[in-house]
Amino acid sequence: MSKVDLSSILNKNEYKKRTITGWENGNYLNATICVTEECNLACTYCYMVGKNNFHRMSFDIAKKIVDFLITDPYCTGLTDNLMVDFIGGEPLLEIDLIDKISDYICMSMYLKNHKWFNHFQITFSTNGTLYDTPKVQHFLSKHRKHCGFGFSIDGTKEKHDLTRKTKDGKGSYDLVINGFKRYKEQYGEDISQKSTFSSPDLKYLKDSIIHLWDLGFKDVQSNLVYENVWKEGDAEIFEQQLKDLADYMFESGRYKTHSVAYFDKRRGLPISKMSLHQNRCGAGYKSLAFDCEGNIYPCIRFLDMCDENKKSKVVGNIWTGIDYNALRALCGTTWQAVSNEKCKNCEVGTDCGWCVALNYQENGTLYERTTSICEMHKANVRANKYFWKRYEEITGKTSDRVIEKVLYSQHNSLKYIYFIMSDKAPSFCNYNSKIQTNLQMSEELVQKGLAFCLDNEALPIFLGTAPDCIKDSKKIYFEIDTVKKFNIPERGITVVKSFDSTVSTAIINYILDKSSIKRALNDVKKYYQIGVLRINLFISDLQLWNEYEINEYDYVVNQLADFIADIYSKGNFRFQINILSDRLNMGDDEYRDCAAGINSIALAPNGNFYICPGFYFEGLKWNIGNIDSGVNFTQKDRLFRDRSPMCCDCKAMSCSRCLLNNEITTQELNVPSVQNCKINYIQANAQLKLLQKLKDTMGDNYCFLANNIQKLDYIDYVANMIYKDERAIAKKWMY
Question: CA-based Rg of the chain, rounded to a whole angstrom?
């Protein structure tokens, strides 16, 4: 090692300017170094069941680990940031070794001009009992500015001493608090902790979280153990403790300034499609763990000492490097791959905890998920919904949880409730009103509908002018109407059937019928010129269209594709037309339709719920429930695309599939009409044409999500199925 002075390196200006770019998005390699398997405590719930006092890391092995990290192509190629996490046992038992390792890390990266020199952090997972010792403080005098600690403090003295004991059975709270006082003095508000709960101590949860807030932790990180320790009645205790904690937060006002992980806005939402294809923790490719002998593991929980049967999983060592075949298995442990059907279809699955190491240790494979925590997670979700409902009641605002659900939840979750304010409300989609009555939605029904939104974490959309009771509300709502003035234009959608220069909203629903196809192209261009940002095209009389209208529509849609390609090639990406531009912003394997009855339902003035407003206005007799008894729709499964044999394998991924048109024309919700299929054939191939033009004109600057839109080689997928099956001659279906 060079004789360059370490203190001068650590005090260099460029080091002080360390950037945190990428850290918040998880763009870092977590290198966990187990410096000892010894601990000075004997916590009752610890997953490190094989702790011992004879496995300690030597400085020679530690140096080789550092050399491996900063030179191995796999490690350095993963990310631009490095987090070195010292762990045990209790890592501070080996502070002399850690001090030398940290010096070596800094010096080595400086001498190699390594990209991580200004982009690394050192962290500790510690019980805190040794923090105030002279050796730890000496270490901090050199490394504090790139060093962080996570203190394990479980809560109140009674709770902490019950589970975090010394080896002679005494509580460790007083020892930890002595170190914590020094920690808080040095780090101020930038302090972090972790608390853990198991079956025997659930009754202390509320008071413990409050105590941690009182100590100065504003954002408390707390979790349940993943192991199968839960008893009958635990879920109820857990749920009640959390609800009592929520009540305290709102009564004290602490909901404004403090938080706890159990009330995360995403916890318990339906799983997003993206999450199904993600690994929960990144073990093996976002994190690597090193034991005292230089073996490499996907994470710390794969070490021998973390399983009673010593069922470890080694993926390499510092001499021969990473075993990529061993690592490959970790890369595929997505939610979809490890979960059973019940978990994959869980309506409250987001943030449900599972551990890939525990899968391996309990089930013998990475790919069979442990579900011991299932009922506890559901209890957490019920309490979390209670918290966010109280938030809306207290503040009068739409909660971040509802916004998160609307923006990111999977296709199969209820997000919107249409309020049909009167029988004269405008037809805004693929239908015409046949209602002859003049019912108005009563104020009482509006209030019941808003309560339904609150209970179901959905946003209201008012078809017609929004009622006075919500106009001055802080809550998010939308209006769809033909009026020229909206209470909040940014949340309004104007319904038009031709060009109208007086529209005040950025979004319009343009309703096409047989008589307006020819003028639609010019109308769209005019709306673009006056600043409209999005046009949703709908066809109100599709069942009446014949080949003449379909050919006219074909011409208009392809001209619109040329128009959008020209706009986008000039850098104006804000303008959208639903039937064309939406496909550009979807993944190649993603599909999208209106999702009526799934993402949204309609509440009519008669108090009944309908799949969509069209089912009410077309005069169809059946409904899916009412405001007093709730939604009761036994045929909901038929609404999904994968339940339609005509739609599930079709390559038109952004489809104007209309359940109302299906019901009217084929008398089946999941069977599209020939007109519907032909229209979507036109739109799908126009989407492909648009994508190809943009790739040609934008080249390397192409920035849309869609990359490979498939060409439809059939006009009507139903005809295509029959033709391939040789049960009928289908040419007569085509034009």
Answer: 30
- Note whether 95 and 113 are within 8 A (CB): no
Q: And the tokens for 68?
A: 């491996």
Share of the chain above pLDDT 90, in %: 70
- Specify the 3-state DSSP secondary structure of 131: coil
Instruction: Check whether 478 has a pLDDT greater than 90.
Output: yes
Q: How far is CA 155 from CA 190, 195, 212, in A?
A: 18, 7, 6
| pLDDT at residue 728 in the model | 43
End-to-end CA distance of the chain: 79
Rounded to an integer, the average pLDDT of 474-495 is: 92
User: What pTM was estimated for this model as a whole?
Assistant: 0.90
| Residues ≥6 apart with Cβ < 8 Å to 48 | 37, 39, 89, 305, 306
Amino acid letter, residue 596: A
Under DSSP, the state recorded for 28 is S
- Interval 633-644 mean pLDDT: 82
H/E stretch holding 445 reads helix 443-456
User: What is the SS3 assignment for 509?
Assistant: strand
- The two three-digit tokens of residue 633, written as one number: 């729709």
**Rounded Cα gap, residues 502 and 285, in angstroms:** 55
Which alpha helices (H) appear in 72-156, and where do they start and end? 73-78, 95-111, 134-143
Q: In sequence order, which ranges of 478-631 are alpha helices (DSSP H)?
A: 517-529, 547-569, 578-584, 613-617
pLDDT at 45 over 50: yes
The H or E element containing residue 211 is helix 205-215
Distinct helix (H) and strand (E) counts, the chain: 26, 23
pLDDT at 6: 73
Nearest to 294 by CA among 319, 323, 322, 311: 319
- C-alpha closest to that of 308 among 50, 55, 34: 50
Beta bridge partners of 87: 34
Residue 22's pLDDT band (cuts 50, 70, 90)? low
